[in-house]
Amino acid sequence: MELISRILAHFALDIAAVCVLTFAVYYPRHRRRDLIPGYLALNVSLFALAAALGRSGDKGGIALAFGLIGVLSIVGLRSESMQTEEVAYYFTTLVLGLISGLPNVSLGLTAILCALPLAVVYAAGHPRLLARTQRALVTLDAAVTDPAAIDSFVKEHLGEPLSWKIQEVDYGRHLTVVDVRYRQARTGGVSRARKILRIVRPPRLKRNVRPARTPAADGRTTLFSDRP
């Protein structure tokens, strides 16, 4: 009974930690609901695996190490839907499940070890951290390889170029794909966004304008009558 109560306490701590990671940190920043079930399932599965291997005697550490290597190899699979910054949450989910699933570690130490990656992910991925530094994949409608021309284009349309790399040059279709890291301007982006809003936003209707009325033949007034 003592072992079961210890495992349940670790499981409650693990669920609380992974819920903070997914629902309080990840989802408010990225708004991707499709990855949340995968994060939760991976975390609980690794917790069960670590809890089982932790009770396998002296060979439990070796088995746990091989299991960790096997799970980490999953990240190497092709996943076009997962962005680079989301891999950090993937690893954190994995680590939380492994740490919480070790029954021989005290509950207090487990809580501290779970709080460390949560704090790092929260601080490193905060929207205010290096908020002006952005990345964009730019497609130019010309085959351009001149660094000065690319710098001028980035300064005019995006901001101050920090670094860029040409991904593709197509002389047949006259296209150039450039991976750009740039620092967003403080006022240029806002003014440009306001100009776009002025163009896209439909004109407002005047409140005090009433539709035209035409007198009918019987003396009554009708709206937009189509009679000759």
TrEMBL record:
Q: Does the keyword DNA-binding apply?
A: no
The organism's place on the tree of life at top rank: Bacteria
Q: What are the alphabetically sorted keywords of the record?
A: Membrane, Transmembrane, Transmembrane helix
Q: Which residues cross the membrane?
A: 7-29, 35-53, 60-77, 89-122
* Listed Pfam families: DUF4956
InterPro entries under this entry? DUF4956
Which residues does the annotated region (Disordered) include? 208-228
For whether the record's keyword set contains Transmembrane helix, the answer is yes
Q: What is this protein called?
A: DUF4956 domain-containing protein
Q: Which organism is it from?
A: Streptomyces marispadix
